[in-house]
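Late entry, evening session. Most of the bench is empty. Finally got around to the prediction I had been postponing all week. Sequence below, unchanged from the version circulated by S.P.
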Amino acid sequence: MTYKAIPRKYRPQKFSQVVGQEFITETLKNAVKSGRLAHAYIFAGPRGVGKTTTARIVAKAVNCENPADGEPCNRCSQCAEITRGSHPDVIEIDAASNRGIDQIRELRESVHYLPARGRKKVYIIDEFHMLTKEAFNALLKTLEEPPEHALFILATTEIDKIPATILSRCQKFIFRRVPQELLVKTLARICQNEGVEYEEEALRLIALSSEGCVRDAESLLEQAVALGNGKVETAKVSEFLGILTGRQVRELLRLGFKGDKEELFKRLRKLEEEGYNPVFVVKQLLEVVEKEFLSPGELSEEESVAAFQILSEGYREIARHPFPYTALLFYLHKLSYFKEVKRLTELLKEGVELEFNRKAAEKKTENDTLEAYIEKTVDEGERVRLVPANGLAYRILREREQELRTKFGKPVEIEKPPERQKRKEPSEKSKELIKKMTRELEAKVLFLKVKGE
Protein backbone atom coordinates (compact mmCIF):
# COMPACT_ATOMS: atom_id res chain seq x y z
CA MET A 1 0.00 0.00 0.00
CA THR A 2 1.32 3.43 -0.97
CA TYR A 3 2.49 5.50 1.99
CA LYS A 4 0.47 8.66 2.59
CA ALA A 5 2.08 11.59 4.38
CA ILE A 6 0.60 12.58 7.74
CA PRO A 7 -0.77 15.99 6.58
CA ARG A 8 -2.64 14.26 3.73
CA LYS A 9 -3.71 11.24 5.75
CA TYR A 10 -5.17 13.33 8.57
CA ARG A 11 -6.64 16.09 6.42
CA PRO A 12 -10.15 16.77 7.81
CA GLN A 13 -13.02 15.38 5.76
CA LYS A 14 -15.84 16.79 7.91
CA PHE A 15 -16.55 20.11 9.57
CA SER A 16 -16.21 18.48 12.98
CA GLN A 17 -12.65 17.36 12.19
CA VAL A 18 -11.31 20.86 11.46
CA VAL A 19 -9.07 21.88 14.38
CA GLY A 20 -9.44 25.21 16.16
CA GLN A 21 -12.02 26.86 13.86
CA GLU A 22 -15.24 25.74 15.55
CA PHE A 23 -17.05 29.06 15.16
CA ILE A 24 -16.55 29.02 11.38
CA THR A 25 -17.28 25.34 10.80
CA GLU A 26 -20.42 25.40 12.97
CA THR A 27 -21.73 28.43 11.05
CA LEU A 28 -21.08 26.80 7.68
CA LYS A 29 -22.58 23.47 8.76
CA ASN A 30 -25.77 25.21 9.90
CA ALA A 31 -25.91 27.18 6.64
CA VAL A 32 -25.67 23.94 4.63
CA LYS A 33 -28.27 22.23 6.81
CA SER A 34 -30.76 25.08 6.51
CA GLY A 35 -30.06 25.78 2.82
CA ARG A 36 -28.94 29.35 3.60
CA LEU A 37 -25.53 29.29 1.97
CA ALA A 38 -24.30 32.55 0.50
CA HIS A 39 -23.13 32.67 -3.12
CA ALA A 40 -19.58 33.79 -2.27
CA TYR A 41 -17.27 33.44 0.73
CA ILE A 42 -13.83 34.76 1.59
CA PHE A 43 -11.74 32.50 3.82
CA ALA A 44 -8.84 34.56 5.18
CA GLY A 45 -6.09 33.70 7.63
CA PRO A 46 -2.51 32.44 7.97
CA ARG A 47 -1.18 29.46 6.06
CA GLY A 48 -2.01 25.92 7.08
CA VAL A 49 -4.99 26.58 9.36
CA GLY A 50 -7.70 24.92 7.24
CA LYS A 51 -8.97 27.44 4.66
CA THR A 52 -8.75 25.25 1.54
CA THR A 53 -9.65 22.13 3.51
CA THR A 54 -12.83 23.78 4.80
CA ALA A 55 -13.66 24.95 1.26
CA ARG A 56 -13.50 21.35 0.02
CA ILE A 57 -15.71 20.18 2.87
CA VAL A 58 -18.26 22.84 1.89
CA ALA A 59 -18.09 21.58 -1.71
CA LYS A 60 -18.75 18.02 -0.50
CA ALA A 61 -21.54 19.07 1.85
CA VAL A 62 -23.53 20.89 -0.87
CA ASN A 63 -23.13 18.04 -3.38
CA CYS A 64 -23.34 15.03 -1.03
CA GLU A 65 -26.01 12.45 -1.86
CA ASN A 66 -26.56 11.49 1.80
CA PRO A 67 -25.77 14.51 4.01
CA ALA A 68 -26.32 14.15 7.75
CA ASP A 69 -26.86 17.23 9.94
CA GLY A 70 -25.01 19.43 7.45
CA GLU A 71 -22.00 17.09 7.25
CA PRO A 72 -20.95 15.17 4.09
CA CYS A 73 -21.22 11.41 4.30
CA ASN A 74 -17.79 10.81 2.67
CA ARG A 75 -19.11 7.54 1.22
CA CYS A 76 -21.12 8.51 -1.86
CA SER A 77 -19.60 8.94 -5.32
CA GLN A 78 -19.86 12.74 -5.10
CA CYS A 79 -17.85 12.89 -1.87
CA ALA A 80 -15.32 10.35 -3.13
CA GLU A 81 -14.63 12.28 -6.34
CA ILE A 82 -14.25 15.60 -4.50
CA THR A 83 -11.85 13.96 -2.02
CA ARG A 84 -9.77 12.62 -4.95
CA GLY A 85 -9.89 16.02 -6.65
CA SER A 86 -11.55 14.62 -9.80
CA HIS A 87 -15.09 16.02 -9.53
CA PRO A 88 -15.98 18.03 -12.66
CA ASP A 89 -18.10 20.54 -10.73
CA VAL A 90 -15.49 21.45 -8.12
CA ILE A 91 -12.95 23.70 -9.79
CA GLU A 92 -9.83 24.68 -7.84
CA ILE A 93 -7.81 27.58 -9.23
CA ASP A 94 -4.40 28.70 -8.00
CA ALA A 95 -4.49 32.48 -8.40
CA ALA A 96 -0.73 32.67 -7.86
CA SER A 97 -0.14 31.07 -11.28
CA ASN A 98 -3.47 31.97 -12.95
CA ARG A 99 -3.76 35.59 -12.01
CA GLY A 100 -4.52 37.35 -15.29
CA ILE A 101 -7.71 38.64 -16.85
CA ASP A 102 -7.78 35.87 -19.49
CA GLN A 103 -8.20 33.15 -16.85
CA ILE A 104 -11.01 35.11 -15.17
CA ARG A 105 -12.77 35.58 -18.52
CA GLU A 106 -12.70 31.81 -19.03
CA LEU A 107 -14.19 31.37 -15.56
CA ARG A 108 -16.96 33.89 -16.35
CA GLU A 109 -17.88 32.00 -19.50
CA SER A 110 -17.93 28.57 -17.83
CA VAL A 111 -19.84 29.61 -14.72
CA HIS A 112 -23.14 29.83 -16.58
CA TYR A 113 -23.06 26.16 -17.63
CA LEU A 114 -25.11 23.89 -15.37
CA PRO A 115 -23.30 21.40 -13.11
CA ALA A 116 -22.34 18.16 -14.86
CA ARG A 117 -23.02 15.86 -11.90
CA GLY A 118 -23.60 17.67 -8.66
CA ARG A 119 -26.11 20.23 -7.41
CA LYS A 120 -23.60 23.09 -7.26
CA LYS A 121 -20.58 24.22 -9.20
CA VAL A 122 -18.03 25.23 -6.59
CA TYR A 123 -15.13 27.49 -7.54
CA ILE A 124 -12.29 27.46 -4.99
CA ILE A 125 -9.76 30.19 -5.80
CA ASP A 126 -6.64 29.87 -3.65
CA GLU A 127 -4.27 32.79 -2.97
CA PHE A 128 -7.04 35.05 -4.27
CA HIS A 129 -5.15 38.23 -3.38
CA MET A 130 -2.63 37.46 -6.16
CA LEU A 131 -5.07 38.36 -8.95
CA THR A 132 -4.31 41.46 -10.98
CA LYS A 133 -6.40 44.62 -10.72
CA GLU A 134 -7.95 43.90 -14.12
CA ALA A 135 -8.83 40.34 -13.04
CA PHE A 136 -10.51 41.64 -9.87
CA ASN A 137 -12.60 44.06 -11.91
CA ALA A 138 -13.56 41.33 -14.41
CA LEU A 139 -14.86 39.18 -11.56
CA LEU A 140 -17.00 41.87 -9.93
CA LYS A 141 -20.18 41.37 -11.96
CA THR A 142 -20.04 37.58 -11.61
CA LEU A 143 -19.68 37.83 -7.82
CA GLU A 144 -22.55 40.30 -7.62
CA GLU A 145 -25.05 38.28 -9.68
CA PRO A 146 -23.82 34.68 -9.98
CA PRO A 147 -26.03 31.85 -11.29
CA GLU A 148 -27.96 30.00 -8.59
CA HIS A 149 -25.93 26.85 -9.17
CA ALA A 150 -22.57 28.58 -8.57
CA LEU A 151 -20.70 28.95 -5.29
CA PHE A 152 -17.43 30.87 -4.94
CA ILE A 153 -14.95 30.31 -2.10
CA LEU A 154 -11.98 32.69 -2.20
CA ALA A 155 -9.06 31.75 0.06
CA THR A 156 -6.35 34.25 0.96
CA THR A 157 -3.56 34.85 3.44
CA GLU A 158 -3.64 38.63 2.83
CA ILE A 159 -7.17 39.95 3.01
CA ASP A 160 -5.93 43.54 3.11
CA LYS A 161 -4.87 43.24 -0.55
CA ILE A 162 -8.39 42.42 -1.74
CA PRO A 163 -10.36 45.42 -3.05
CA ALA A 164 -13.27 46.67 -0.98
CA THR A 165 -15.58 46.15 -3.97
CA ILE A 166 -14.86 42.39 -3.78
CA LEU A 167 -15.10 42.21 0.02
CA SER A 168 -18.53 43.83 0.05
CA ARG A 169 -19.89 41.11 -2.24
CA CYS A 170 -18.78 38.18 -0.07
CA GLN A 171 -19.30 36.77 3.41
CA LYS A 172 -15.99 36.83 5.28
CA PHE A 173 -14.59 34.23 7.66
CA ILE A 174 -11.29 34.91 9.42
CA PHE A 175 -9.40 31.72 10.28
CA ARG A 176 -7.10 32.01 13.29
CA ARG A 177 -3.93 30.33 14.40
CA VAL A 178 -4.58 27.20 16.42
CA PRO A 179 -3.73 27.46 20.16
CA GLN A 180 -0.62 25.59 21.23
CA GLU A 181 -2.42 23.30 23.69
CA LEU A 182 -4.91 22.22 21.04
CA LEU A 183 -2.08 21.52 18.60
CA VAL A 184 -0.34 19.34 21.19
CA LYS A 185 -3.54 17.32 21.70
CA THR A 186 -3.95 16.92 17.93
CA LEU A 187 -0.36 15.72 17.49
CA ALA A 188 -0.72 13.33 20.44
CA ARG A 189 -3.85 11.82 18.90
CA ILE A 190 -2.02 11.29 15.59
CA CYS A 191 0.90 9.61 17.39
CA GLN A 192 -1.49 7.29 19.21
CA ASN A 193 -3.25 6.38 15.96
CA GLU A 194 0.09 5.70 14.27
CA GLY A 195 1.46 3.73 17.21
CA VAL A 196 4.32 6.22 17.67
CA GLU A 197 5.97 6.70 21.07
CA TYR A 198 6.27 10.36 21.99
CA GLU A 199 7.31 12.76 24.73
CA GLU A 200 4.83 15.54 25.41
CA GLU A 201 7.60 18.12 25.67
CA ALA A 202 8.68 17.19 22.12
CA LEU A 203 5.14 17.77 20.85
CA ARG A 204 5.11 21.17 22.59
CA LEU A 205 8.29 22.15 20.78
CA ILE A 206 6.73 21.14 17.45
CA ALA A 207 3.58 23.12 18.25
CA LEU A 208 5.67 26.14 19.23
CA SER A 209 7.71 25.98 16.02
CA SER A 210 4.62 25.66 13.81
CA GLU A 211 3.26 28.98 15.17
CA GLY A 212 -0.35 27.83 15.18
CA CYS A 213 -0.39 26.20 11.72
CA VAL A 214 -1.78 22.65 11.76
CA ARG A 215 -0.26 21.63 8.43
CA ASP A 216 3.21 22.79 9.50
CA ALA A 217 2.86 20.97 12.82
CA GLU A 218 1.89 17.72 11.10
CA SER A 219 4.78 18.00 8.63
CA LEU A 220 7.24 18.60 11.46
CA LEU A 221 5.80 15.65 13.35
CA GLU A 222 6.45 13.43 10.35
CA GLN A 223 10.07 14.62 10.21
CA ALA A 224 10.46 13.99 13.93
CA VAL A 225 9.11 10.44 13.60
CA ALA A 226 11.58 9.73 10.79
CA LEU A 227 14.47 11.28 12.74
CA GLY A 228 13.68 9.30 15.89
CA ASN A 229 13.12 6.03 13.98
CA GLY A 230 9.52 5.79 15.11
CA LYS A 231 9.89 7.80 18.32
CA VAL A 232 9.36 11.50 18.96
CA GLU A 233 12.02 12.48 21.52
CA THR A 234 12.50 15.90 23.07
CA ALA A 235 16.29 16.06 22.66
CA LYS A 236 16.22 15.25 18.95
CA VAL A 237 13.25 17.48 18.21
CA SER A 238 14.91 20.37 20.05
CA GLU A 239 18.08 19.91 18.04
CA PHE A 240 16.53 19.66 14.58
CA LEU A 241 14.02 22.48 15.17
CA GLY A 242 16.53 24.77 16.84
CA ILE A 243 14.21 25.29 19.81
CA LEU A 244 15.23 25.02 23.45
CA THR A 245 13.50 22.73 25.90
CA GLY A 246 11.68 24.25 28.88
CA ARG A 247 14.50 23.09 31.16
CA GLN A 248 17.14 24.82 29.01
CA VAL A 249 15.18 28.07 28.94
CA ARG A 250 14.75 28.13 32.71
CA GLU A 251 18.44 27.35 33.15
CA LEU A 252 19.35 30.41 31.06
CA LEU A 253 17.08 32.55 33.24
CA ARG A 254 18.65 31.12 36.42
CA LEU A 255 22.16 31.86 35.15
CA GLY A 256 21.07 35.35 34.17
CA PHE A 257 19.65 36.19 37.59
CA LYS A 258 22.67 34.54 39.21
CA GLY A 259 25.08 36.67 37.16
CA ASP A 260 27.24 33.71 36.12
CA LYS A 261 28.90 35.33 33.09
CA GLU A 262 31.28 32.48 32.30
CA GLU A 263 28.63 29.76 32.28
CA LEU A 264 26.20 31.95 30.37
CA PHE A 265 28.86 32.56 27.73
CA LYS A 266 29.52 28.80 27.39
CA ARG A 267 25.83 27.95 27.05
CA LEU A 268 25.15 30.66 24.49
CA ARG A 269 28.27 29.86 22.47
CA LYS A 270 27.12 26.23 22.28
CA LEU A 271 23.66 27.30 21.12
CA GLU A 272 25.24 29.50 18.46
CA GLU A 273 27.44 26.64 17.21
CA GLU A 274 24.41 24.33 17.05
CA GLY A 275 22.48 26.86 14.95
CA TYR A 276 19.78 27.95 17.38
CA ASN A 277 18.00 31.16 16.35
CA PRO A 278 18.76 33.80 19.03
CA VAL A 279 15.55 35.72 18.32
CA PHE A 280 13.52 32.57 18.85
CA VAL A 281 15.47 31.92 22.07
CA VAL A 282 14.34 35.31 23.38
CA LYS A 283 10.74 34.52 22.40
CA GLN A 284 10.96 31.32 24.43
CA LEU A 285 12.44 33.20 27.38
CA LEU A 286 9.57 35.70 27.26
CA GLU A 287 7.05 32.86 27.08
CA VAL A 288 8.46 31.28 30.24
CA VAL A 289 8.56 34.68 31.98
CA GLU A 290 4.87 35.15 31.15
CA LYS A 291 4.03 31.76 32.68
CA GLU A 292 6.07 32.59 35.78
CA PHE A 293 4.27 35.94 36.11
CA LEU A 294 0.82 34.32 35.93
CA SER A 295 1.74 31.37 38.17
CA PRO A 296 4.85 32.29 40.19
CA GLY A 297 7.22 29.36 40.61
CA GLU A 298 10.96 29.89 40.40
CA LEU A 299 10.57 33.64 39.80
CA SER A 300 8.79 36.16 41.99
CA GLU A 301 6.34 38.62 40.45
CA GLU A 302 8.93 41.40 40.69
CA GLU A 303 11.58 39.25 38.99
CA SER A 304 9.15 38.35 36.20
CA VAL A 305 8.35 42.01 35.56
CA ALA A 306 12.04 42.95 35.51
CA ALA A 307 12.85 40.03 33.19
CA PHE A 308 10.02 40.98 30.83
CA GLN A 309 11.21 44.58 30.55
CA ILE A 310 14.84 43.64 29.97
CA LEU A 311 14.15 40.81 27.50
CA SER A 312 11.55 42.82 25.56
CA GLU A 313 14.14 45.52 25.04
CA GLY A 314 16.64 42.80 24.15
CA TYR A 315 14.32 41.24 21.55
CA ARG A 316 14.21 44.45 19.53
CA GLU A 317 17.96 44.92 19.77
CA ILE A 318 18.97 41.30 19.09
CA ALA A 319 16.80 41.11 15.96
CA ARG A 320 19.00 43.72 14.24
CA HIS A 321 22.32 43.33 16.06
CA PRO A 322 25.37 42.22 14.00
CA PHE A 323 26.38 39.89 16.89
CA PRO A 324 23.02 38.72 18.27
CA TYR A 325 24.40 36.12 20.70
CA THR A 326 26.75 38.70 22.21
CA ALA A 327 23.78 41.02 22.69
CA LEU A 328 21.79 38.16 24.24
CA LEU A 329 24.65 37.49 26.68
CA PHE A 330 24.60 41.08 27.92
CA TYR A 331 20.81 41.25 28.24
CA LEU A 332 20.66 37.99 30.18
CA HIS A 333 23.46 39.16 32.47
CA LYS A 334 21.51 42.36 33.09
CA LEU A 335 18.97 40.20 34.95
CA SER A 336 21.56 39.82 37.72
CA TYR A 337 21.15 43.50 38.60
CA PHE A 338 17.80 42.58 40.07
CA LYS A 339 19.69 41.01 42.99
CA GLU A 340 21.03 44.46 43.80
CA VAL A 341 17.52 45.90 43.62
CA LYS A 342 16.40 43.39 46.22
CA ARG A 343 19.37 44.30 48.40
CA LEU A 344 18.44 47.95 48.04
CA THR A 345 14.90 47.06 49.12
CA GLU A 346 16.34 45.50 52.27
CA LEU A 347 18.27 48.71 52.95
CA LEU A 348 15.04 50.68 52.68
CA LYS A 349 13.48 48.41 55.28
CA GLU A 350 16.39 49.16 57.59
CA GLY A 351 15.69 52.90 57.68
CA VAL A 352 16.81 54.44 54.39
CA GLU A 353 14.08 56.09 52.33
CA LEU A 354 14.05 57.67 48.88
CA GLU A 355 13.08 61.32 48.50
CA PHE A 356 12.72 63.51 45.42
CA ASN A 357 15.67 65.53 44.20
CA ARG A 358 15.57 68.98 45.80
CA LYS A 359 17.05 70.92 42.89
CA ALA A 360 14.74 69.22 40.42
CA ALA A 361 11.78 69.92 42.67
CA GLU A 362 12.74 73.58 43.07
CA LYS A 363 13.08 73.95 39.30
CA LYS A 364 9.72 72.28 38.74
CA THR A 365 7.99 74.67 41.16
CA GLU A 366 9.03 77.89 39.43
CA ASN A 367 5.66 78.12 37.70
CA ASP A 368 3.56 76.37 40.36
CA THR A 369 0.98 78.20 42.50
CA LEU A 370 2.08 79.24 45.97
CA GLU A 371 -0.86 77.65 47.76
CA ALA A 372 0.70 74.22 47.31
CA TYR A 373 3.47 75.18 49.78
CA ILE A 374 1.30 76.82 52.44
CA GLU A 375 -0.10 74.55 55.11
CA LYS A 376 -1.88 77.30 57.05
CA THR A 377 -2.61 81.02 56.54
CA VAL A 378 -3.27 83.24 59.63
CA ASP A 379 -4.47 86.83 59.04
CA GLU A 380 -3.29 88.88 62.05
CA GLY A 381 -4.66 92.21 60.86
CA GLU A 382 -1.52 94.23 60.06
CA ARG A 383 0.25 91.18 58.63
CA VAL A 384 -0.27 87.62 57.45
CA ARG A 385 1.49 84.69 59.09
CA LEU A 386 2.16 81.66 56.85
CA VAL A 387 2.92 78.15 58.05
CA PRO A 388 4.87 76.31 55.29
CA ALA A 389 4.13 72.65 54.46
CA ASN A 390 7.75 71.55 55.03
CA GLY A 391 11.35 72.70 54.97
CA LEU A 392 11.54 72.83 51.19
CA ALA A 393 8.30 74.82 51.05
CA TYR A 394 9.77 77.29 53.61
CA ARG A 395 12.74 78.03 51.36
CA ILE A 396 10.54 78.45 48.28
CA LEU A 397 8.18 80.82 50.10
CA ARG A 398 11.13 82.89 51.37
CA GLU A 399 12.44 83.26 47.83
CA ARG A 400 9.03 84.44 46.65
CA GLU A 401 8.26 86.66 49.65
CA GLN A 402 7.78 89.79 47.51
CA GLU A 403 5.21 87.94 45.43
CA LEU A 404 3.39 86.96 48.64
CA ARG A 405 3.29 90.57 49.85
CA THR A 406 1.71 91.64 46.58
CA LYS A 407 -0.73 88.73 46.78
CA PHE A 408 -1.96 89.54 50.33
CA GLY A 409 -1.46 93.34 50.16
CA LYS A 410 0.34 93.49 53.54
CA PRO A 411 3.57 92.30 55.19
CA VAL A 412 4.07 88.56 55.37
CA GLU A 413 5.74 86.54 58.11
CA ILE A 414 6.87 83.05 57.09
CA GLU A 415 7.10 80.77 60.09
CA LYS A 416 10.34 78.80 60.14
CA PRO A 417 9.83 75.05 60.66
CA PRO A 418 11.58 73.35 63.61
CA GLU A 419 15.16 72.19 63.12
CA ARG A 420 15.46 68.66 61.78
CA GLN A 421 17.69 66.05 63.31
CA LYS A 422 21.16 65.72 61.94
CA ARG A 423 21.16 63.67 58.78
CA LYS A 424 22.43 60.15 59.08
CA GLU A 425 24.96 59.31 56.40
CA PRO A 426 24.53 55.98 54.61
CA SER A 427 27.33 53.47 55.06
CA GLU A 428 30.06 53.16 52.44
CA LYS A 429 28.56 49.83 51.34
CA SER A 430 25.16 51.45 50.85
CA LYS A 431 26.69 54.35 48.91
CA GLU A 432 28.47 51.95 46.58
CA LEU A 433 25.31 49.92 46.04
CA ILE A 434 23.23 53.02 45.29
CA LYS A 435 25.90 54.25 42.88
CA LYS A 436 25.74 50.95 41.01
CA MET A 437 21.95 51.11 40.80
CA THR A 438 21.98 54.57 39.30
CA ARG A 439 24.65 53.57 36.80
CA GLU A 440 23.57 50.10 35.71
CA LEU A 441 19.80 50.22 36.01
CA GLU A 442 19.48 53.86 34.98
CA ALA A 443 17.56 54.32 38.22
CA LYS A 444 17.20 57.80 39.69
CA VAL A 445 18.01 57.38 43.37
CA LEU A 446 18.55 61.06 43.96
CA PHE A 447 18.40 61.82 47.66
CA LEU A 448 18.49 59.88 50.92
CA LYS A 449 17.11 60.58 54.33
CA VAL A 450 16.64 58.62 57.53
CA LYS A 451 13.16 57.57 58.64
CA GLY A 452 11.69 59.87 61.27
CA GLU A 453 13.89 62.74 60.12
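Two things to note before I forget:
The two ends are 88 Å apart (CA to CA).
Residues 352-367, 443-453 have pLDDT under 50 and may be disordered.
Will write this up properly tomorrow.
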